[in-house]
Structures are given as C-alpha cells and as structure tokens.
Amino acid sequence: MNLVHDFELKTVPPYSFELTVAKPAGWWWATPREVYEGRTLWTGVRWEGRLLGLRIDGLRTLMRPRIRCRVYSRARFDEAMKDAVTSLIRAALRTEEDVRPFYEMAEGDPIVREVVKDLRGMRILRWPDLFSALILAITLQMAPLVRSQQMWGLLMEHYGENAVFDGRRIRYWPSPKKISETSEEELRSVAKLGYRAKNLKAIAESILGGFPTMEELSRMPSEDARRKLMELRGVGEYSADIVGTEGGFSLDVWSAKIFGVLMTGKEPEDPRAAIPVLQRLARERWGRWTGHVFVYVLNDLDKVSERIGFDLTKF
DNA sequence: GCGTCCAGGTCTACC
DNA sequence: GGTAGACCTGGACGC
To answer: What is the spatial distance between Cα A130 and Cα A45, in angstroms, rounded to a whole number?
Structure first.
C-alpha cells in the first residue's frame, strides 16, 4: 500500500489518545489485530469496499492534544476521497466531542466521580466501519468472551484481509462481499459461528444491498439510527447499542451483574430479567451520558472494585 | 469420562 | 403485546 493522505486533527481537550484507542479493558479501535506502541496506532479500516492502512500518532499532551494520521491505499486518492476519509477518522476518534459537561455531571455522582478522574480524556467507542462493528455485536451474543474471541480469530484467519503498509502487516475483518460469498454451512463449521452464521450472512447481504453506512447512520437522529440497525437480522437492542454511534447502554448478562451491584448494592438474582430495570434506572440517573458512564465504568473495574470492596472483575 | 448447564441475545410461534 | 422455547459451541461443574 502507498501513502495517499497525511493530515493532522485538532481535538477538544482533555483528550487522551492512548485511552481512546487502546482501552484499559482491552477493547481495540478498529480490529483486535491492530498494533499500539509508544503513542502510535497501526490499524486498518474498510471504506467504500476498499481496505485502507492507517498509521495514527498521538502528539503533544492531554490539554494540548493533536493527532497525525497517515492513510495508505492500493488505489489512488483524489481530494474528495481525502475529505471523506478525514471526516470518517475524525468521527471515529471523537476528536470534536466535548466531555467537560460529562465530567461536571460526574462531580455530583458517587459512582462516576472517581472513574472520570482515573480515565480523564478518554473517548467512548465509535467503530469506524459498520460491518466490522456488526460482526463484533453478533459474535458477542450468547457467548462467553473466550468463545467470541475464538469466532473473531477464525473469521479473520479464514476470511479476513491484510493491510501491508509502513513496515507493518495488520489483519482486518472480512468484507461483506466475502461473507456473502461464503456458505452458511462453511461459516458454521469453519468459523464456528453456530446459529449466528445465518444472521451474519443476512447482514452482509443487507449492506451490499445499500444499507446506510456508519456515516449516514450518524447523521440520523440516534433513535432513528438505532431502529434502522434493528431492522437487520439478528440485531436487537443490545447489538444496536454496541454498534450505534451515540454510545448506548448495551447491558447484557455480564454488565447487568456489575451495574446491579453498583446501582442497587447487590448482584441481581436474574440478571437477564434485571436488564430493562437497570437500563431505566441508568437513563434516569445519567441521561444523555449513560453510554459514557457504561464505557468508563467497564474500563475501570479494578479501581472501582477496590473502592467499593467488592470484586466486580469476577463476573 | 460423561452428562448437564449456560453464557457479554434474538427470533419465532403461540397465546 | 407478551412470552416460552429454540438456537451453536465449548468450558465449568458435579457425579
């Protein structure tokens, strides 16, 4: 791949590049196989059907942050393509988001007050590529994390693609086209997707059939985007919140246990049944910042556990 | 060793 | 409009 675009982004402080792209809980920015070393991220993104290599450097400090991004491609880039990719990366890094109102709200809340000090400057997740985010959501369903990781590994190994640039080789998620061309039986047996194979194929076909892109979804009112995502086969509220551009409160059985302890003082007896109740309580308590609280708390479980004297990492 | 349970949900069929 | 029951797979657990 050749260098086709090189630009800098200003960010609204405080902005921590490291906490944003390499989350303490281990979540990646675009692919689990990306590399983060010494304030530089080598990763990839699929845009308009083509895989791009990205080298992103976090420059300067928390309060005077800048980001330099280099884009690599096999194809040539014109000015319109450069503008589109710049805005895609800007949105996915959330460089223009002002988190100060969130931190002000946190001052008055005992659960969030210390968490925002631990993770000052972190931005919540915002997947750069819709289909990759949907693969993540589908493979998280009804599976312990190790099983989800097994599915990611097999999907990438057998159907993924390499971005080779800047002396690096980064393995990236399969394209919708590749998944649509693979039989459901093969996805079941080779990628061990089980019942999810049918859903993932249907999603790939919807995307190839003109489903809105992440950028188009982000321009919709968030509730409309959420409803649109739930039109996809196998995407319910949980998955729509994982993929969604506004950082939803995607409670599942695991996180319901954690927030059950934090918000009600005890582990729910039936976590699945507790999900809608906890979601309502969270929405009432944190309003538009609910998704931020979710990501901040789940990325700070060690310290939160220490403070409350209850091991939340055991779930 | 072997059987059972259930996990970082969603859809369908039935009432 | 509300809700059991089914769904892949594999690790944990009890016997």
So the answer is: 10
Å separating the CA of residue A305 from the C1' of nucleotide C10: 29
Which H helix or E strand runs over A9? strand A2-10
pLDDT tops 90 at residue A185: yes
**Spatial distance between the Cα atoms of A292 and A226, rounded to a whole number of angstroms:** 17
Query: Span A269-298, mean pLDDT?
Result: 92
User: Residue A141 CA to C10 C1' — how many Å?
Assistant: 15
- Closest C1' nucleotide to A199's CA: B10
Map tokens 């039989």 to a residue: A183
Q: What is the pLDDT of residue A129?
A: 95
> So what's the pLDDT on residue A51?
98
Q: Which amino acid is at A161?
A: E
pLDDT at A246: 77
> In 3-state terms, what secondary structure has residue A187?
helix
For residue A273, pLDDT over 90 is answered with: no
Q: Which of A93, A95, A182 is nearest to A135 (CA)?
A: A182
This prediction has a pTM of: 0.96
The domain A2-97: what is its CATH number?
3.30.310
Burial of A186 (0-12, 13-18, 19+ CB in 10 A): middle
Q: Which two structure tokens, joined as six digits, stand for A86?
A: 């710049």
Q: Where are the domains of chain A?
A: 2-97, 130-158+174-231, 253-314
Q: Is A148 helix (H, G, I), strand (E, B) or coil?
A: helix
Residue A86 pLDDT > 90 = yes
DSSP single-letter state for residue A314: G
CA of A166 to C1' of B4 (A): 51
